[in-house]
Design a protein that fits this description.
alpha+beta; 39% strand; 272 residues
């Protein structure tokens, strides 16, 4: 039996944010067994904590169909699980994963990870063809941070909340760009957060991601490229799905940090 937690990331309220399944004692499991467990949990990601010779722990991240080099909410949720279980201690952690060794910090209960470098490539604005009408004159970009998101801006929060993409067309378009999906954002008009965000990945079996860490990293890189990124801000995501998460971002010229709180909703053991 192996210790198991299900953690909601980007929230401190159970059954909000974005859930990740975490297997804490994964040593001895092979990739095929990990993939089978990830299919069984049927969450967007399942993670497996392993010993590391170069970091505090090694994290392997699986969607129901494939292994991922990096993903945002699994990183935050897994760090929370490791700290809560006593596997690691302190305010500074290092995580080994497919994207390399990443630095994490804990600041008053909020876990931050310094994101891998994002590669941005401009695209022609044809998002309207899949049912996502972007703000006039705004650029569209392909952003790669492990997952690959096409990023664009909508006119306002109301337009973002109302958008209903053509999922079949969006999946085909994403595949044509070798992208995970599309992340779109808009100014919030709210005092306690700067932007609202939505992420759609039907090509990977996820019509909408409740609160997407890698998508928010890509939005931050997009805003930095346009010289519009605040040094620190909060993004809100998941309201349309009843999840309502908060994503904390820190942006400098050479680094982007993704942050969030997390809460354990399920705890027990898993048989393998």
């Amino acid at each position: 039996m192996r210790r198991f937690k299900q953690v909601d990331a980007f929230t401190d309220r159970p059954f909000h944010g974005n859930p990740v399944a975490v297997v804490l004692d994964a040593e001895g499991l092979g990739a095929a067994e990990m993939q089978r467990i990830a299919r069984w949990t049927n969450l967007s990601e399942t993670t497996f904590l392993l010993p590391s010779s170069v970091a505090d722990y090694r994290l392997r991240i699986f969607s129901p169909t494939r292994e991922l080099p990096f993903a945002g909410h699994p990183t935050i949720g897994s760090a929370h699980a490791a700290l809560e279980a006593g596997l690691v201690k302190g305010a500074k952690l290092r995580q080994e994963c497919g994207a390399g060794v990443l630095d994490l910090t804990v600041d008053d209960g909020t876990i931050f990870v310094r994101a891998p470098q994002v590669k941005l490539t401009p695209l022609n604005n044809i998002a309207s063809a899949v049912g996502i009408p972007l703000a006039p004159g705004t650029p569209l970009a392909r952003a790669e941070v492990g997952p690959v998101w096409v990023v664009g801006e909508m006119t306002d929060a109301a337009a973002l909340a109302a958008v209903k993409p053509d999922m079949t067309a969006l999946a085909e378009w994403s595949d044509s760009l070798n992208a995970t999906g599309v992340t779109v954002f808009a100014r919030s008009g709210e005092a306690d957060c700067a932007i609202h965000v939505r992420s759609f990945a039907p090509a990977h079996g996820i019509p909408e991601d409740p609160v997407c860490g890698s998508g928010n990293i890509c939005v931050a890189a997009y805003l930095r490229h346009l010289k519009r990124a605040p040094t620190a801000y909060i993004a809100r995501q998941g309201m349309q799905m009843g999840r309502d998460g908060r994503v904390h971002m820190k942006v400098t010229s050479d680094a982007i940090e993704l942050g969030g709180r997390a809460v354990t909703c399920v705890e027990g053991t898993i048989s393998t």
